Amino acid sequence: MKRIVAVVFLASTLALAQSNPTAPPPKVTYLRCGTLYDGKSDAAQKNVMLRVVGEKIDTVATATPEPGAEVIDLSHEVCLPGLIDTHTHVLLQGDITADDYDVQLLKWSTSYRTILGSVAAKRALEYGFTTIRDLETEGAGYSDVDIKKAINNGVIPGPRMQVAGRAMDVTGAYPLLGYSWELKVPKGVQEVDGAEGGRKAVREQISNGVDWIKVYSDRSYYVQPGGVLNDIPTFTLDELKAIVDEAHRERHKVASHAAALNGVHNSVEAGVDSIEHGMYIADADLQTMVAHGTYYVPTLFVGEYVAEGRAAAGAKVWVDMIKIHEDTFRRALKAGVKIAFGTDAGGFDWKIDPAKEFPIMVKYGMTPAQALHSANMSAAELLGMQDKIGSVEVGKYADIVAVPGDPMADVHQLEKVNFVMKGGVVYVRP
Ligand SMILES: [Zn+2]
User: Fold this and answer.
1) 347 CA to middle of ligand 1, Å?
2) In a 3-state reduction of DSSP, which class is residue 317?
3) Burial of 31 (0-12, 13-18, 19+ CB in 10 A)
4) Residue 2: which residues within 8 A CB-CB, separation 6 or more?
């Protein structure tokens, strides 16, 4: 009863604040865009004036600015919807070799990692990624929930975030591994076993503030004759189904790290919402993904980036996987699987622009417009935010970026973002 009274009181206080006649009117900003791709159509619109009121887009037209309003001149720029990266790790600062990874979990405190994570979030925004889905903290607990909170409270600059917290894998499958059995070392995930264990872990993680449940569905890859990438599935199908069912029952989605044959198959059968990496996906599973509307988040760049280092450390399979990944991407594209842009940033150094993913998507068969769409509306739909972000439309958040040249002619332009607005606030100017 007490709680109900408190809620009613809070609601009436909020209503008062909103109708407060002395509150300043929301800021009005105009963006004069030489060219606009609005994210709905692939056609370029020329000389568009965008009116932004507060945090939302108010008008997309050739309106004349009212006196006193700020006008930002982007007449030599190409304006685009803010980019969305649906697979990042702000709590990770590169892990080409196992050593890089172990140092971060063994020698860096969670506090230190969170400070670095807040810098990574700022970088993501400055690269033009106004929204990210951060897919687990790699041993840093729920620090992503706190980084998201600090961004939303205006304490630090960063993108809009959906977060996954600790992620899940079965006992003994995920680093840190290989230390003496007498040592209790930290793990990059929450170790979860059994269907009931899975349901309990979902409940616990959601209560601690995650948006997404992330599972690791396979490990230990090897190339079979004929180019099929095989694996050891981690969870049983039963366990995965319980995790997915519990998450969906609580209106949360599940992202599955599934790189190869069995991990992908089990994930697709269990009804996960996105397949992460998917270096090898059997044709039958691609068909199920189309039927279920399951998203494919291919993370192509990171594979090329880490392959050399990992091959040098003795794991040649990472080099072979590049070609297999390309073939899978081409088959997925042809089959009509929904593809959302994701990079695994953090798996490579945050000093590298994650937009390097775009040219590889184009090299592997997408048009620049398709690649851009994967980081706009397609990604927004995966995040369930299609009514708020992903296109430049009246009523949506004013998440707008600009690049100096036409990305439809040269997709590398997306690595040259020089204007970033998120929610009507400018973070980068040309
Ligand atoms: Zn990842």
Assistant:
1) 7
2) helix
3) buried
4) none
> How far away, in angstroms, is 164 Cα from ligand 1 center?
11
> Which of 81, 76, 67 is closest to 30 using CA atoms?
67
Compute, in angstroms, the gap from residue 171 CA to the centroid of ligand 1: 19
Structure tokens belonging to residue 79: 């304006």
Maximum Cα–Cα distance for the chain, whole Å? 73
Alpha-carbon gap, residue 294 to 267, rounded angstroms: 10
* pTM score, whole prediction: 0.93
Q: What percent of the chain has pLDDT over 90?
A: 85
Q: How far is the CA of 89 from the centre of ligand 1 (A)?
A: 6
C-alpha of residue 200 to centroid of ligand 1, in Å: 23
Cα 238 to chain centroid distance, Å, stands at 27
Exposed e or buried b per residue across 62-95, where buried means at least 16 C-beta atoms within 10 angstroms of its C-beta: eeeeeeeeeebebeebbbbbbbbbbbbbbbbbbb
Question: Token pair 């979860």 is at which residue?
Answer: 192
β strands within 150-246, DSSP E: 160-163, 168-169, 190-191, 212-216, 218-223, 229-233
Q: In whole angstroms, how large is the CA radius of gyration of the chain?
A: 22
pLDDT of residue 424: 98
Q: Give the distance (Å) from ligand 1 centre to CA of residue 196.
A: 26
Tokens of 306: 């880490």
pLDDT in tens, 196-213: 999 999 999 999 999 999
pLDDT above 90 for 155: yes
How many residues are given for the chain? 430
Query: Partners of 403 in the beta sheet?
Result: 78
pLDDT score of 19: 52
Q: How far is the CA of 86 from the centre of ligand 1 (A)?
A: 10
Closest CA to 257 of 34, 89, 12, 16: 89
Residue 385 is which amino acid?
A: M
Distance 303 CA to ligand 1 centre (A): 11
Amino acid at 61: A
Q: What is the mean pLDDT of the chain?
A: 93
- pLDDT tens, residue by residue, 258-313: 999 999 999 999 999 999 999 999 999 999 999 999 999 999 999 888 887 778 87
Q: What's the gap in Å between 88 CA and the centre of ligand 1?
A: 6
Structure tokens at 196: 């009931």
CA 64 to ligand 1 centroid distance, Å: 46
The pair of three-digit structure tokens given for residue 122, joined into one six-digit string: 């700022």
Please count the CA atoms within 13 angstroms of the CA of 307 that sit on its side-chain side. Answer: 16
**Rounded to 5 degrees, what are φ and ψ at 323?**
-65, -40
Please give the pLDDT value at position 313.
79
